[in-house]
Amino acid sequence: MNHSVDTGWFLFLVMQQTAPIGVFDSGYGGLTVLKEIVTALPEYDYCYLGDNARAPYGPRSFDTVYHYTLEAVQWFFAQGCALVVLACNTASAKALRTIQQKDLPRIAPDKRVLGVIRPTTEIIGQFSQTGHIGILGTNGTVTSNSYPIEIAKFYPQLKVYQEACPMWVPLIENGEYNQAGADYFVQKHLDHLLGQSPDIDAILLACTHYPLLMDKIRQFLPKQVQVIAQGEIVAKSLATYLQRHLAIAEKCSKGGQIRFCTTDDAANFDHQAAIFFGKGVTSEQVDLIHS
Ligand code: DGL
Q1: Residues at CB less than 6 angstroms from ligand 1
Q2: How far is the CA of 128 from the centre of ligand 1 (A)?
Q3: First and final C-alpha spacing in the chain
Q4: Ligand 1 atom closest to Cα of residue 209
Q5: Average model confidence (pLDDT) for the chain?
Q6: 229-258 average pLDDT score
Q7: What is the pLDDT of residue 32?
Q8: Which of 68, 69, 122, 129 would bridge 95 by S-S if both were Cys, CB 3.0 to 4.6 A apart?
Q9: Cα(230) to centroid of ligand 1, in Å?
Q10: What is the mean pLDDT of residues 150-167?
Q11: What is the per-residue pLDDT across 110-120, written as a single tens digit (0 to 9) for each?
Q12: pLDDT band per the 50, 70, 90 thresholds, residue 53
């Protein structure tokens, strides 16, 4: 056996840099996705970043969401991450394509950024018998038309109806999601959505915050209407992606650790994040621009 070749190969492997998988959201919502990702792929390390200081993204312009998201992605790259998941529909709708097509080839051709819209639209047709699907999202996601456009690529026969629910994220972020005050806004938007077609039999929660409203949503919907949350869908899709893209998977470290970061106050983040993640977290505050 040639030991020098062997040693060289070993050193190459040791020196090859690995880092956590980055998971991003405007705030807390992406934690509902991270929870499912960690369940599906517990062996990897993760770095979660919530841009709480600038949330919500939902009402912001294309340009603003794009610039905020790009800053976050560059921050993840500075931490060494080779793979970043935008676990935020608004960022996926308004920033992902430009980042993938324009920025990545220039700033980090070996790194990858994935979103939540593509994995969801690939399989959404499986949930409907009638061929009528409802989409609930932020203003940003709905006005971008990303869901109808992407769904048409995989299921051209599906009819897609959308409803923006601008009050839902503030209700959730302010801990009102299980209070009586939320009923009005939940019912109002479900009525608007179902008013567009009585045949809707599956509704996608196209905002990573909305699973917290699941109980209330169910309460105001007919039994036969299925409600779809994205966490498990995104987690399964990420698992398949890592199996198919070994060069990226090899750059993702494995140690079962999660680092939680926020652009706003860490103590506040920890308090709220536990509700979204399902268990306690300890975060650190980071500065996207100067770190
Ligand atoms: N969680 C984000 C999403 O999935 C939206 C929250 C916000 O408006 O910032 O769209």
Answers
A1: 25-27, 29, 55-58, 88-90, 138, 141, 169, 207-209
A2: 25
A3: 46
A4: 1
A5: 94
A6: 98
A7: 97
A8: 69
A9: 13
A10: 98
A11: 999 999 999 99
A12: very high
Instruction: State residue 175's pLDDT score.
Output: 87
* Integer-rounded Cα radius of gyration of the chain: 20
Residue located via tokens 């915050």: 209
Task: Tell me the whole-structure pTM to 2 decimals.
Answer: 0.93
Instruction: Kindly give the residue spans of alpha helices, DSSP state H, lying in the chain.
Output: 3-15, 30-40, 62-78, 89-94, 96-98, 104-107, 117-123, 139-144, 146-154, 168-173, 181-196, 214-219, 231-244, 246-249, 266-277
Taking the centre of ligand 1 as the mean of its atom positions, its distance from the CA of residue 207, in whole angstroms, is 5
Q: How far is the CA of 55 from the centre of ligand 1 (A)?
A: 8
Q: Which of 88, 117, 139, 233 to mutate to test the pocket of ligand 1 (most atoms within 8 A of CB)?
A: 88
In one letter, which amino acid is 278?
Answer: G
Q: Is 240 left (phi over 0), alpha (psi -120 to 50) or beta?
A: alpha
Active site residues: 88, 207
